[in-house]
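Internal tracking record. Fields below are filled automatically when a chain is submitted to the structure queue. Please do not edit lines marked as system-generated. If the sequence contains nonstandard residues, flag them in the REMARKS field before resubmitting.
Queue: standard
Priority: normal
Entity type: single polypeptide chain
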Amino acid sequence: MGWSWFPVQLSFFVAFVATIITAVIAIIAAYFLVANKRKLNVVMETIFFLPLVLPPTVIGFMLIVVFGKNSPIGRAMEWIFGQSLLFTATAAIIAAVVVAFPLLYQTVKTGFTSLDDNVLGAAKVDGASEWKLLLFIMLPLSIRSITAGLVLGFTRAFGEFGATLMFAGNIPGKTQTIPTAIYIAIESGQTAVAWYYALISVTVSFLLLFIINQLKVDR
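SYSTEM-GENERATED OUTPUT FOLLOWS
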């Protein structure tokens, strides 16, 4: 193994696509849980936050169970795409979505719950539907929280390792991301290559976290 731009390019691609998918899911989930306050919400939120505390190997194993060749979903995906999702870039995206979701969900929910109930109530009185309320009032007013969530989600997806290694593998030129490239470089004694990838990862993470801190300062 030597230095290659592919893990860098794939990491950015996976993180970007995963962040978009996660944002849509997190916004919808946060809206419905905030709008419909039920006892079941506690159970749902507990499930949402599991990826934060579960070992990456457990997450990877569960993804293999859900999307593997022996599962109904896995067989359906194989029929649609003509191949199994395991050990593909798509698998890396799915793993990134799972681990990034709790962070994005929490920040979006925080933004929604901080909104003035009088504003939302007035919009409903004026005839705003549920979707109009979300799209034209809640999202614009929560833009800072959502932006912070997007940055956090991207950063988490960009650095995902454990679940990705199990579910997507570490195939050079196909599924190898920066974290898995660092792992293989260290295993093979190529410290210089590991340093190159590590510096890129640290730089990107620092810049993204700096953006989040700036958003907090500008409030």
